[in-house]
Amino acid sequence: MKPTEPRGDKAARLRQRKFERLRDIQVPPDALPGSLSLSHRRCGKSACHCAQEKQGHPVWTLTFMVDGKKRVERIPLEWVEEVRRNVAAGREFKQAWTEILVANAELLVLRRQQGR
Fold first, then answer.
1. 83: which of 10, 29, 55, 71 lies 20 to 30 Å off by Cα?
2. What is the pTM of this model?
3. Which pLDDT score, from 0 to 100, does residue 1 have?
4. How many whole angstroms separate alpha carbon 7 and alpha carbon 9?
């Protein structure tokens, strides 16, 4: 809060931003949590090119949490672009939802301070 800004003005701005986000927010039907990453693994076959090269075979994975446990799932190469878009949609949704929750917390603090 700016030093000269009354609490009522800040609360009004928070409510306005919160309701703008609520109006705009939509749950993307195919949104995904977590992150998509590329790593390289050697297959273990002595005749394979990966046995002589520094990098192994490319492996795409989606890493996310379920019930407090980390899950890592392999993603086929032909799915990578779609999964990347769905992870980005999930991240954008999560960010919008977090903004709403933070605004609610700040409004609660302002309400408590006004009661003093």
1. 55
2. 0.76
3. 46
4. 5
CA 102 to CA 94: how far, in whole Å? 12
Q: Is 47 exposed, middle or buried (0-12, 13-18, 19+ CB in 10 A)?
A: exposed
Amino acid (one-letter) located at 28: P
pLDDT digits (tens, 9 = 90+) for 15-26: 998 888 888 888
Measure the CA–CA gap between 37 and 93, rounded to whole angstroms: 20
- CA atoms of 13 and 1, how far apart (whole Å): 11
Q: Is 33 exposed, middle or buried (0-12, 13-18, 19+ CB in 10 A)?
A: middle
66 phi and psi angles, rounded to 5 deg? -135, 120
87: nearest Cα among 59, 57, 61: 61
